[in-house]
Amino acid sequence: MSIDEIEVPKELREFMLEGAEETFLGQKFGASKQYRYGNLHIREYDDKFLVHTDKIDPRRDPIGHLIHDAPEILIGLACAIFGGTQIPKKFIDKKSKKTIISASLVTSIISGYLGYTTTKKIKDYLE
Questions:
Q1: pLDDT at 19
Q2: Quick one: which of 55, 38, 42, 37 has its CA closest to 14?
Q3: Residue 79 in contact with residue 115, Cβ under 8 Å?
Q4: What tens digit of pLDDT does each residue of 48-103 get?
């Protein structure tokens, strides 16, 4: 749970806003379901709801949401693309197409993961 999330135990109250829509947008973090109601992002777990407010509703402006609410995803994707296209060129013999594809896939995954986790840690630290 991040600092800006509110936890609502289900035993205290069965919580759901009328008009909230179930969504696949957002990271579930183990939640069974997710809902959106305007800028509210609600995650449902077996025993609780976690609720936080996004700066931008991803249903209305997905790019703005990624920039302001989830920059770690954009940076992870950028690192994956860069890592998968540039790093193998520097270190792999271009004679084997299979080797280049394998190296591109591996460096893409590693670069994307490192970019995502590093940005997430920085973001969490700054919040």
A1: 83
A2: 42
A3: yes
A4: 999 999 999 988 999 999 999 989 999 999 999 999 888 877 776 666 777 788 88
Which tokens in the block code for residue 47? 């025993």
Sequence-ordered alpha helix ranges (H) in 69-96: 71-91
SS3 54: coil
CA 22/CA 41 separation, integer angstroms: 10
CB atoms within 10 A of CB 82: 15
Beta strands 21-22 and 40-44: pairing type?
A: unpaired
- Rounded distance, CA 119 to CA 114, Å? 8
* Residue 25: partners with Cβ closer than 8 Å, 6 or more residues away: 34, 36, 58, 59, 62
